[in-house]
Records
---
Amino acid sequence: MESNSAGSQDAARAVGAPEDSSKNGEHPRHRQEGIMSLAIHNLSVHAFRRQTDYQLTTSNFLGSYAKLFTDWLMRVPKTRVDIIQEFDGLILSGEMLLVLGNPGSGCTTTLKTLAGQTYDICLDKQSSLNYQGLSPIQMFHEFRGKGTYQAEFDIHFPTLTMRETLQLAFKARRSPNDWHQCNTIVKNDAYTLGLSKALDTKVGNALVPGVSGGERKRTSIAEILLGDSVFQCWDNSTRGLDSVNALDFIKTLRRRTSETGSVAIVTLYQASEEVYNLFDKVTVLHEGRQIYFGPTRKARQYFTDLGFIAPARCTTPEFLTSVTRPLSLRPRTQEGVWPPASPEKFAQAWKATAEHKALVEEIDNYNRVYPVGDHKSLLSMRKKLKGHVQKQSPYNISVQKQISLCINRGFLRLRHNLKVPISTIAGNFVTSLILGSMFYNMGEDTASFFGRGVLLFFTSLINTTLAAFESVALWDDRPIIEKHVQYGFYRAFTEAVASFVCDLPNKIVLTFVFNFPLYFLSNLRRTPGAFFTYYLFGLLSLLNGSVIYRSIGAMSRTLAGSQPPGAVLVMLLTIYSGFAVPFQDMRPWLQWFSYINPVYYAFEAMAINEFSGREFKCSDFIPSTGRDSSHFICSSTGAVAGATSVSGDDYIAAAFASKPGHLWRNLGILIALFSLFASVYLLASEFITMLPPRSDVLLFQRGHMPHLQDSKDEEKGHNSPTNVEKLNVGEKTIKHDMLGTSDSTHLMWSGLTYKIKENKNEKVILNNIDGWVKPGTLTALMGPSGAGKTSLLNVLAERTAVGVVSGDVIVDTRYQNVAFARKVGYAQQDDIHLPTASVRELLTFSALLRQPETYSTEEKLAYVDYTIDLLDMQAFQYAVFSRLNIEQKKRVTIGTELAARPELLLFLDEPTSGLDSDSSWSFCTLLRRLTDSGQAILCTIHQPSGPLLTLFDRLVFLNEGNLVYFGDFGPQCGIMIEYFERHGARKCSAEENPAEWMMDVVRNGVNGSELNWANIWTDSPECVATKAECYRMKQRLSAVPRSVEPDETGATEFAASFWCQLRLVTKRAFQHDWRSPEYLYSKSLTTFGCAFINGVSFWASGSRPQDIQNQIFSLFLLTTIFGTHVQLIMERFYNSRLLYENRERQSRTYSWTVFLISNIVVELASQTVISVIAYVSWYYPVGFWRKAIVENELNSRSGLVFLLIWSLLLLFQTLSQMLMTVMPDIPTGINNGNLLFLLSLIFSGVIVPPHALPGFWIFAYRATPLSYYISAIISTGLSGIDIACSAKDSLQLDPPPNQTCGSYLGTSVPRLLNPNSTSACEVCMYTSVDSFLAYFNIYFHDRWWEWGVTIAYNVINIALTFLLYWMARVRKRSKKQN
């Protein structure tokens, strides 16, 4: 027991008394006294649970929010859920605290609370946190960056190298005067963490190749260590690291805290004794209650005094957590002693001890020395941590330096990923050439008026919307930026400024590349001044569009929430640009938008720049023949009677109500708008954060929610106080009738080599590896990070996608068929599953599709129940997968493989990573049981304890792709230890963990000693014996007679029939859509918003010529909804493709045709519903139905328009899915999809009528699907109506004296409104809508066959989807495997 004298010593240290001691043989500490410490008293944390905390679906999505509103209105109280209760602690300067507890004990919540991450939890009023006189608000606001929290997940900019990532972390938290030390310190820290070889490798992520997962984890660690944080919370940061790297990390942390006087609080699920001894203090949590806090050296004794007996060779951390197991699974107790049985009893026992009383006294003394809120304490901490008592900013460098640092990083990211801007520039250059060729060398007469107007409108619109993808692109960076803001690296708005500045050169080049060819090819005003004025306004349009879209992205807290506003904005920018609807014809309810529309001002300025001060020759006169010398008029807007040319100023005044004086006024307005939107963007970036992720808070399906009084700790799920006890699979009674006897097989590999291309070099991943797996044996695959363990599993399981494999991989002859892959279970390192499915549904899906058909459906479902019970997943079997914590996800990954009943082999890639020691032991015991039933298992494992290794039979040890050892472990690992000691390794003491000892001696040999273990193995007699056995096995396995021929079911590639696959996969896809309300509502709201805004902007359009033109453009703009649909559909299809190709195709769960059919059918259903929304919200407001009534064809015309809009929405789907079958990623797919659709819009016949197209491009008009959609819909909606011309729409001229209008003009004009008048003849250029539509090659009698063509396009797209997927992803893979 700890005496009160120890407490007084700690109290003395709290007020700054010096200490000179050693810790476990370490050098005496040289620390800066009193730089940071923490007193915690009576800390209680709770959360609130609502009745609507269940999985949302399309049906209950709106209802749940309505329920929240009514509950708030009626003041319905929420249900309180306690997470942490009455936690006390004192961590002094230079100390490290280890937080131990089984998953669900509250470890993560404790760390988050201490690190200020309390966005979804609440602290009780009596809770006290004292950061050496600072309150939590002061600590994590004014001193942000001095306190950090490192979560289990690693997020970095993937295209930056590790060196560049770490250099920014150093510079952001250091004075510029210290930046000269950056390279040296980064190298030293990288060497300490074993990262030296990877410094110049990209960090990477799931999509960008880079460093290994373990190296990425160590990069996250180094990022914090390079900063100047003095209070660090590390949440299971050794997950995924091997034992040596984990030990090195804790040693580094130990040295840093000792030298700097900082504080480190760490949670570890699997801690060795050596790691444990590096900590000063330890606290143990049991279901949210503290049951011990004190020195690490006294913790074991405390629980021994309670009556527990530590098992032999059990490490102290394992012993401390084992006392919180269910009663039947706890360590043995001393005879006659009854230790606490419940969390409450444990907590009471702890509070009754002298140690706890001394701790409370120390905390009281500490709080007296450092009173919270004391101004002197605040000034003192400013002096210690910032160097100046007046400095209140949490950042160490000025705003200018922050911007400079972020700009430098931005250009590095750009340099590492040049293909994106280059491809964008190239794509827009091609588009510019096409547009320029369509308007090639327009004449300088009035016939070019419409073409010039369309071209200027289109270019101003494209310039503004070129940056539309930026609102979505922000979401790739936001999690990383917000992490850096929490670390105190820089302000969020400085990164916003930097990202815009870094993108500016690209925008300047992009604008020039797009506008220059188009401008001169089309023969716009060819003067230097006119071009650069045009270019200036084009660039300002792009810059305005950029900050507008960035503002939308920054103001949204979710990605789905940013897409509908973005789509509606594009529609508003287009409609209220002044061209599609002239200003004087705009509907009053939205006319105001033109005043803040940069496209409006840019288009008007470009029109003034093009037309003002010019005279255009008249290309057509009225009357066309028989006119006298003065009584005629040019058939063009803005014409003056008797003039042979039209003034450009008159034209833009009549057509767009523009005045030449508006040119430079608009420049000022665009600059002002840019400043306004840029300010909104910067403010939103600084103050609006993403919706905080709550991925670890369990979310249950409705109808399966647990009782509201259960705990809501982030780690909990199956370990809540209401559960009776935690089951342990190692101690369960296995139902032998369920487990049965496995029909396993031998697997042998010899001379196995695996090489991949890395840039222009060939990299050897595996080099001449030999070994085997036999039935009834449990084989461990071990090695440091990057040794090639996962690569070996992928090669053996036939799951390599790239590279060249050589050597032999042989199984029994009777299993060498297409069914081999599906009979092998493979639990991958990455937990990839359908995010909206429940745990039970995932296991059921695997069982129904992967178990042999010899089992009935009832037997398969019974085995699912058995697997759930076996892996202790009953409490969260109805929880949604995406909201499970890491440990629970790992159980599900393993469970889906076990539920499939693998008949031959079972591969597991790091199944114990993220599990606590108890769960690891439980799971490995289960593997032992499986092998005893005849299963052959190969399993990679990190950080195994000594007792855990005794469960394995054989070891495959790799290092840098070479085989270091293959053979039996032997009793107590004796055979393996003897091998290494015989070849020069140091002795393994009885207390050492054999796994850690082995990792240590092998790494020492690699790092420069005389021992090269790969060569030692090659020259050893064990290697000779292994190769000889491999040769014998090869002969034996190859010669096995097929005495028992497999039946047809056993030899098929898939266990289930095609129709069974299709039924189950399609059902799951429908469920996935239904449970993704953000996807369906985003698509619905986007469609409704765009269609409705479009419709009401052209509300009840009449039959004037301008009205007819407006309605044609209305339909033209309706098709631009594709831009949003392609983003949503491609992302959906891509994520489904990733899941299928990375998991379900590998395990032969179902075929690729089923995958495609199910995705097409489900998306077709949703697009059909969306088409109804689009039809109702556009067709009726725009007024087509009124014209159908006039023609007495309401049903037929309305029905056909609906069919065409339905077919149009299907085109969006089929084109998106077809492209996504071959695209490598979502941005590339979206860019290519938008480019194709843009070309389709250009050639649709609206921008340039078919007769005006150069002959070369006629084929494009006939090939583009949109020309058929627009022609059919417009002709169906408008045909047969007479055009109503008013004086405003007609041309006026006086006839010669003594003649009437009729006698003078006769039949030389299309339509004369006042034939009997002797002055002011009013000439209308159109007689009917049909004659107007004929100008665009649109005819009513073509409508039905054009609808048939649109259906044919969809059928062709679907056919191409299958063909392209087969060519790109099936045939290529088949060749690879062959």
---
Amino acid sequence: MSSCFSCFAFVREPPAEPSTENDKTAALLSKTTAELQRVKFGKEIGKLLPVPILGPMKEIEEGYPKKVYKAPTHWDSSDRVALHLPQAAADSAVALEFVLNGKPVVLQQGQLDPSLTLHDFLKQYSRLTGTKKACAQGGCGSCTVTLARWNDVIGKAQYSSANACLLPLGTLHGVSITTTEGLGSCQSGLHPVQQRVADYNGSQCGYCTPGMVMAMYSKIKSLEPSLPTEQDMQLTIDGNICRCTGYMPLVNVLRSFGEDGVEQTKKVCYSRTGEVAPYVPNQHDPPFPKSLVGMTKSHSISTTMSGNGKVWHRPASLKEAIPLFKQAGAQIVAGNTGVQGLYPDDKAKTSLFVDVSCIAELQSVKVDIGKGKDALELGAATTIETLGALLSTDERGRHASLAQAIKDLKSLPSATQTNLRRMAQHVYNIAGVHVRNRATLGGNMALSKLKPEHFPSDLAPQFLAVGTSLTLLNTSSGATRTQLLAEWLKSEVCPTDLIVSLRIPISGFVFLSQRAMLRPQNCHAYLNAAFCATCSNGTLRDVRIALGALPQAMLASRTAAQLEGKSLDDLQTHLPQLAATLREEAQFTDSHDLQYRETLLNTFLYKFLLSLADRGDTDTYTSFARPLPKSNDVSFVNNVNGGSVAADAIPKHTSGAQASGEVKYAGDVDMGAGGLHAFMVTSRVAHGLIKTVDASEALKMDGVVAYLDYKDIPGDNNVSNEQEAEPLFCTDRITFLGQPIGLVVAQSSWQAEAAAKAVKVDVETLPAVMTIKQAMGIEQFVVADGAPRAESKPGVSTGVLETDTSTSVRFSGEWQSGQTKHFYMERQVAMATPRANEFGGGDGVDLYHACQALSRVQSGVSCVLGVPNAWVQLKQHMVGGGFGGKATRNVPTACAAALAAVRLNRPVKLVQDLCTDMSMNGGRHPVLVRYDCRVDKNSGKVLAAKLETFGGRAFIAEKMGDQVSNAAKPCLDPWANYNKPEHRITEAKVALLNIPPSTAVRGPMHPKQAMAVETILQHAAAATGLDLLTVQKTNMNKQLDSGTQTELWKELESSSDLQARMKDVQAFNQKNKLKKRGIALAPCLWDVPPIPASATVSIYNGGTTKFLDGSICITISSSEIGQGLHTKVAQICQHELSKHPDLCEPVPLELIRVVGNSTEINPAWDLTGGSGTNPQAMRAVAGACEILVSRLTLKWSTNPLKKRLMNMNMKAMGKVGKKVTWQELIASTAGPMGMSAADLTARNTVFMGLSNNRSLIPQMLGGKLCAPHPGHGAAVTEVEVDVLTGEHIIIRSDLLYHMPRSVNPVIDLGQIQGSFVQGLGFFLKEETIYSDDGTDLVTKDTWEYKPPCAKDIPQQFNVAYFRPGSVKGLVYGSKGVGEPPLFMAVSAVNAIRECIMSARCDAGLDPWADVSLPLTPARVSASCAVDVLKQVGHA
């Protein structure tokens, strides 16, 4: 057969009659299938072509209609729940019933562990993967679901949001649960909430998106029939974290569901129709299950569920509960937010749970109205959200059942209404809404008493201040008593006491409260306080001052006594004495930010007194009003010389599937039968020697299959292909906290986690060096990684720096930055399946893995397994965020999963929990920078600069670039957008620390460079008395990017109205002493690297002209991590293929599918990152498409057989000489036996924009060379700072980014917004803190590590593109956009420092103060150095 086909290329024009056997065969191929089956030419055609040939069957006039997926009407979406539960015993009774996405679920006794969370139930026993678990604390919201219970009182269902990671199965009886899959799907149609999230550009990596969707849906349903207000919107996603979008698109989605919301937001809706998806609740929302209607009585029926040695009782009355309380080891739970979220180890030790959430006596709500002594009497199981609704008198939607109580509250005097509002605003800042919906008042008080060293209750100070009392039940004797909360907190713990109710006074006094936080939402306080007193005849009476977050709450009785009887007119004169007493009384039991918290005591007291002097009319709780943020309408007009590239400005094409939870991430891939789960055993110290490891107890635990360590590795104990090895498992010397020691494998993830914690590791602890300054003290440096002292002009530069002149001034300072984390929402994850190789044996492995560099993982796994790279194959479709953290630090996770799979010959999934992930994987390299500079007094030009940098590195070297480049060296050359001073002196040292290996984080090195240069310039401005903008312009590099930077700054200065606003800020600061505003500009510059990329593009012709196909499949080597790569390459594919000269219309974008990456298809050594991946991947796809267009274009040199077959098919379709659709063009290539007249698969690899399939010189002459290009822009940010607390609000940010042309301006907009907000986190909030001895990572979870939230973004968030400039050397004229905007966030640092300098000038201090990153409230307050005791008489 091969010889016959080899002759086909030489047949030019078949003769009228066949003359040779080869000619006969060619003629045969021009006939129909029916003819071919019967015609013979010397030999039977069956001998030549033994397979039946498929070809054109009949002539048709036009293409087949587009294939539109239509699900049969009888399909039920509840079928997609697809539960696969373990078999229950035949005679077991029903334990509980609930409904999941419309499907009834019945669980029997002994079938499942009742303490199993809903998330783990969904993950283990269903195919619903939309509900994610990123933190397991209720701190990120990625697991949000909607709960609904029927309420007979109001005659409808009550809806609320909840964290599936905190919801135990035992508490779900009678509940309807809706996950994002239950709202809609790409198959059945998206729900309007899902559709709007997609259309408003509200999804990038998509991992948090299902949680966002359910948070919004829950809020909308909970308010029906009312529409959400702006206040509601702010409290909708306060329990959700998004690392990618910058929240602004999500805020726009929320606003669209409010009054006139569609009209207000339609300009920021980027749907293909141009319309906002309509929403009709009764039409679009899944109905409440009829089977649950009227099931209010289910709450009055006790239930018990048992399984896995655990029992969950849910009594309906105290009478039924008391005997259960008396059982040994009984754990009382209600909302389960504390036991599960904060203290999971306590839960793991418990086998008997008594759920009091449905006990009628604990759910009472009553307003006791008495003569000036009105009070709320609430059952202990009342949720915090319900308390908030009562205090804010909100009876809408789900709170309609509180109508009578709220009516009573509304009847109270205005002074009481004021108290209620003030208490409500404090309540609504406790945790996030999903936790508030479950957490109870009694549980909060209990934790405050039982966990005084850790749990800083925000409710307790309020309750103490107003004189709250508790009704307590002795579960042993049955007796009840009433006791003041203040007395109860100080008393010994009585294990038989149960809080039944709380009496909270609400009138007859002035109530004030304060709270200082790192983040304005979902964040425990540095310190909180509440003040309560009566004002009678101008004097204070009945004074109570309560403090919280010490951590335990307490009454400051002595301070209150000193205020008793004082006149309101001269309170401030007593401030020094009162402050001294208050400091003596406050009992801080931890040292975290202790000096700042002690300062807050004075601040809070001062503000209380200031308000009281105004008769309590001034609210002290919040320093700033925070309205719902707004954005501008971004212009998407491209460079006039560039034209349009893509067909549409559209959101990511996977946004809908992300919103509906249908996108499968690595952790969502089904392992199939026999799959196991793994969990790392890690070091609990930062430095030490392993003496013994004992896994015997762990191996005895239920479900545990194996423990593996370095002794089980068949290859090398090395996950790196670099010169310096990194062991997969530690063998003897531990060098950082969280270092992997071994791996436990079990049947479920929770069994593996419990067993891993049971492995005993005996370690000889050694002194740990955790900070750069500690290393400097003992001179623990890596000499080889340092950069020796150097001068730009040897022997001259130092002299210029040190020689004083009348026209210059010298200044110096230092700052440092820690090891901030990536905090990707999807944890490190890998799923490995053993694979037999072709030569026998099962030493190969297939991996689904979340990573940014597949080949690096492939190399590491092959090294550990001791097999060739081809024996290890990786696949992935989408990554739930990376930011550099999945470029190298993911490799140990993949290697460990692969080892377990090969060792046990079973699929193994390893998903790191948040704490392990944060401990194992480093973030940015820590750095300390010292500078010494000389600047011209008149112009602000920097004349000389000495920079000495100290970087920090781990004992294990990072695998991406050398330590000098990442740790210390960048800040030696930070000038970026500015001219380098003529005289420069530099030196770098790298300290060796007991920290996990650091790696690249979004915009590696450059944020620290931006901080370094902006610090120098702002200090120069302070030293010379010039304004910062003047100094910046003086030192600006006017030649950058062919001079476009100068024009960009001018445009930004004009569009942001900078000069006028600077004057307004100055006027504001002259009038205000305790609040300051600052406004500043800061540029960014990132040399976008041309990262190599490869792509394979395949076209499917369907094998016939009868049913047209023409679909296209793209496989790329680069990873989709949320940056819109798949959408952009699909658009480029459409753009390039549409250039075919015979097409009558563009290629339909809907026909293009991007399937991610696979090392079997694209084994190139590629990395995703640095903003350079998108342009090069687009060029790789474009090159492949150019090849395909060439193959599909008939020319004189075209293979005659190919030409004949395509012409024959065109004739059959009636399209000869006519323009055709894409599907018709591809159908013309359909040949016999499924063959194609053209090779419809093309592969292309590019580096620096140049394809390896073509000659370099023509490509370079054609302008395709893409060297590193400058990604630059600038931002103007205005802030307001409370100089006493150090808290701030970003009033407005204007971002202008240089982008001559955009392939997809919507995606680029999302990248700019998200990158900038992530930069705000780096510069202002995020910090890695270890204990001094290295035995604890304090910031290991969402309780302590605080990325930005929705309230952190600018109140006015403006983004614009700067279009002028050359497109030469750019792929489609577009620039990389993922990294640079992050550096613009240093504009917020500049603005805050302007506030600091203004405050210091008012205080008579040197305006400049060194301040390190991040600029937390503690650091800002300390830098302002305002002594509140000197503020008497000032406002």
